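pinging the channel bc i need a second pair of eyes. not urgent but kinda urgent?? the chain im working w is below, pasted from the shared doc
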Amino acid sequence: MGMCLFLLLGLASVVQAASAPDIQLWINGKKISSAVPPQMVNDRTLVPVYVVKDAMGMNVGWDSKSQRVTITGNSKKIELVINSKKAKIDGSTRTLDTAPVIISDRTFLPFRSVGELLGMNVDWDSKTKSVHLTNATSEKVDKPTSGVTAVKPIAKVASITKIQQTEQGFMIVADAKVDAKTFTMSGPNRIVMDMDKAKLNLKNGSVTNGQQFDTIIKTVRYSQFAPEQVRVVIELDGKASYTVTPSGNNLQLAITETSRNPKPPTTPPPVVTPPTKDEPDQGTVEPAPAPVPIVPLATKDKVKIVLDAGHGGKDSGAVGNGLQEKDLTLGMAQKLAELLRNDSKFELVMTREGDTYPTLQDRANLANKEQADLFMSIHINSGPATATGTETYYYAGGSGKDYANIVHKHLLKATGSLDRKVHTANFYVIKYTKMPSILVEIGFITNASEAAKMKDEDFQQGVADSLYAGIKEYVNTH
C-alpha cells in the first residue's frame, strides 16, 4: 500500500483548533470514516494519526517523551515532532507548512504537506468538501482480466498470548504482527492501547501491581473490546511518558515516571505501653541493635558480591534482531563470574546460573540474606531501532552512586557506544537491596548494530572484563 500516514490539507481560516466534521476524507477512492473528526488549525485541515495509519497499513511509533511520531512503510521513514514544522524524510530534513499538534490527547498531522513529500497526489474538492489522496501509482494498476476474480489479501488476526509486566513497563506477546493505537486519558491517568485485528487468547482480566514491581503502574486491565480488537488499559499512580516499540510480533511499552501522586497521610502507630504486673505480657520488645561499624571493602579479606543476570526462564526480557535479553545477560554474567571466582578477594553468589526465573523479590532477598557487600544486575535495553548507548542506574535512596559512576566509566570503554550517563531509578532489585547496588544496561537489543555486537563472544568477554575492572576499582577505593 502507498504511504499516506498523518496527512493534511489547507482549508478554512481558523487560528485555534476547531472541529471540522463536514470534511470528507478519501484514500485511493475509498471514503474513510472516523469517530474523531478532522480539526482546523491555521487554515489547514488535520486528521488523527490513527485514521490514516489504519487506512494505509503503515507502521507507526510514538515516543511520548520526545513527542515524536515515526512512520515506516514502503521503504520510507518519516519522523515528525509535535509543534515543529521540521520533518525528516529518510534522514533528510524538510519543512512543513503546518506543525503536528495534540488536541484532547490525540495526535493530528498536516495532510497536504506530508502527502506531497511522500509523492502522493492530494486534491481538494470544494463543492463536496472532500480531501482526496491517491498513490502516484494507484491509477496504473492493471485490472483483472475477464473471468479472473480479484481476491483481496486477508490480514491475519493476531492472537495475544501474554501480557507480561517488565521492569520498564509491559510486553504484549502475540503470534503475529500487531499494531496498537496508543493514547492517554486522565481522571485517573491511564495509557490505553487498542490493537486491531487481534484476539485475546486469555480471559478478560487485570493485573494489580504488587510489591515485586515498584513502578508508577497501579493496575493493568485487558479485554476483547470488540470482535477483532483487544484493549489494554494501564492505570497510573501519577503522570508518565511512554514509548511503544515493535519487536518482532511483540510490542514493548516502556513507561517513564514524570510525577507520582502524593500519598495520603498515614495514621501514626498506636503508642504501646509496657504491660503492668496485672496484665499478660503480649511479647518482648527487642532493643535496637547497636550500629554495625562499616568496614572498608579494601580492608576486608573477602568481598561478597551478588551477580544478577536479568530476566530468565519464562521471562525473556527485551527481544529484537532474533535475540532474547535473558540469553545475553546470562552469557555476560557467566563470563564475569569466572573472573570473580578466580580472584581470591571475592566471594560470588549468582541469582541464576541457567535459564531459570527467580522473581525480582527472590533476587533482592537473596542478596540481603547473604549479607552481600555489593550487588550488580546486568540488563539489555530496548527502544526504537535507532536508539543506542550504555547506561547505568542506582537507587537515589541507597549507597550505589560511587559504585555506579566507577563501573559506568569502565563499561563505556568496552562498549564504545553512546554515553547515556548514570541515572537514578526505582528498579526493585536496586531499591530493595541493602548494600551498594547498580543495574547496567549494556546496549540496545532493538538496534541491529548493537545487537550484532552483543551476541559476539569476544564483545561479551570485553564487557565482563570492564565490569570486573570497575568492581575492583570500587573495592580498592572504598
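so Residues 1-16, 137-154, 209-213, 269-293 have pLDDT under 50 and may be disordered. and The chain has three domains: 8-137, 158-260, 297-477. — does that match what u expected or am i reading it wrong
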